[in-house]
Amino acid sequence: MSAPSAVTSATTPSDPAADSGVGRFATVGTPNGPFTLIADQAGRVLASGWTDDPAYLAALVHRSLRPTTLEQSDELGDLTDAVTAYYAGDLDAPARVPVVQHSGGAFLTRAWDALRTVAAGKPVTYTQFARLAGEPAAVRAAATACARNAAALFVPCHRVRRSDGSLGGFRYGLDTKQWLLEFEEPEAPEPQD
């Protein structure tokens, strides 16, 4: 797997990278239903998830990054290609796409960066996730990072489970989370004769 792109954090509303004027969105059909992405003018994922409602996703974007206008597109180049590639079996494709989120704090940005390093087929617990984010005692903050993640699939919060092995929560439903985890499981080798 190539190194995942870091989650860029726009620090202030005046950050030129956070020019929140016009955003574009596109919806891709997936086995889990429609998957919509919102991109900024620089072609970075602002929000994504299993919905056909761009207004729902836009509400998840921090106000300093939220586009004032959304324009529909048939596709968003590398962004929609990454979703298609993921469902075709290139499970690392979303990690190669740039994402920008803003949290107001350093921990969430570090946590989102750490989450992008969690490999498909190797889910972690919230405790392990907190450790990856550099704060082993911050288990609740790690759960908050998952809950506040606007860029589902690209920042793969579905790869975090509870310590007891149960799924925990997922904005797009536990059925979708379970499907994704099963899809990402490595295939067992064929038995040799």
From TrEMBL:
E.C. number(s) listed in UniProt: 2.1.1.63
Matches recorded under CDD domains: ATase
The encoding gene: ogt
Class of enzymatic activity (EC top level): transferase
Gene3D superfamilies reported for this sequence: Winged helix-like DNA-binding domain superfamily/Winged helix DNA-binding domain
Organismal lineage: Bacteria, Bacillati, Actinomycetota, Actinomycetes, Mycobacteriales
Native source species: Gordonia paraffinivorans
Molecular-function GO terms, alphabetical: methylated-DNA-[protein]-cysteine S-methyltransferase activity
Keywords: DNA damage, Methyltransferase, Transferase
Feature: compositional bias, Polar residues: 1-14
UniProt-recorded name of the protein: Methylated-DNA--protein-cysteine methyltransferase
Annotated Methylated-DNA-[protein]-cysteine S-methyltransferase DNA binding domain residues: 107-185
GO biological process: DNA damage response; methylation
PANTHER family named in the record: METHYLATED-DNA--PROTEIN-CYSTEINE METHYLTRANSFERASE
Superkingdom, natural source: Bacteria
InterPro entries to which the protein is assigned, alphabetical: MethylDNA_cys_MeTrfase_DNA-bd, MethylDNA_cys_MeTrfase_DNAb, WH-like_DNA-bd_sf
Chain spans, region Disordered: 1-25
Pfam families with a match to the protein in the record: DNA_binding_1
